[in-house]
Design a protein that fits this description.
- It holds the Pfam family MiaE.
- By secondary structure, the protein is mainly α.
- It has one domain: Ferritin (Up-down Bundle), CATH 1.20.1260.
- Helix content is about 75%, strand content about 0%.
- The protein has helices at about 10-15, 20-45, 50-75, 85-95, 100-130, 135-160, 165-180.
- The mean pLDDT is about 95.
């Protein structure tokens, strides 16, 4: 369904398990950024009522996920660390087209968002199937399902609002680009790292 070409090596989970506090802190900040991204889409496209409605739902869900991660951090006697840069997301951001019409730019922003959700969903699946901690396995399985829904929403809106963009062709370009950069990641105890 996600169309990703390069799967995460399950051994990445061994790295994650070596520093649960780091993965949970990184994950918390990923949720915060995802909520902020949805709000940004609202800010720049406030006239698109259906989009605004759905982005507000996603923003709330992402904030709920942030709260869930924070509660999990506290329950494990850990501390939410400082915000981290997400180099993977920053590389994807540079690939996003910022020219053309407002709707063309919106379409690419939605595809950028879909790509992040797709990879997060894939990583959460790997965690849910390979992590030894049963609580974390269930936690990541539940979040994987949510991320898949967000991915579908972003792709659907990209198709709806595309004016001059062949969304399927552009999505394939996103997949190819993501494949070219993801090879550098999967070596750190971060969601995309």
């Amino acid at each position: 369904m996600l169309g990703l070409k390069l799967a995460t090596d399950p051994r990445w989970v061994n790295i994650v398990e070596s520093n649960i506090e780091e993965i949970l802190t990184d994950h918390a900040w990923c949720e915060q950024k995802a909520a902020s991204n949805a709000i940004s889409i609202v800010t720049y496209n406030s006239e698109l009522e259906e989009l605004v409605t759905e982005m507000l739902i996603i923003a709330k869900e992402e904030l709920d996920h942030l709260q869930l991660v924070h509660e999990l951090i506290k329950s494990k006697g850990l501390t939410l660390g400082r915000e981290r840069k997400d180099h993977y997301v920053n590389e994807l951001f540079k690939f996003m087209k910022k020219d053309g019409s407002r709707k063309d730019a919106l379409c690419d922003r939605l595809l950028f968002s879909a790509m992040i959700e797709a990879r997060s969903c894939e990583r959460f699946k790997v965690l849910s199937e390979n992590i030894k901690d049963a609580e974390l396995a269930k936690f990541y399985r539940d979040l994987m399902i949510s991320e898949a829904g967000h991915y579908t929403t972003f792709i659907g809106f990209a198709r709806k609002y595309a004016d001059n963009v062949d969304v399927d062709k552009r999505w394939q370009e996103w997949i190819e680009f993501e494949t070219s950069i993801i090879v550098k990641y999967g070596k750190n105890e971060t969601v995309h790292g």
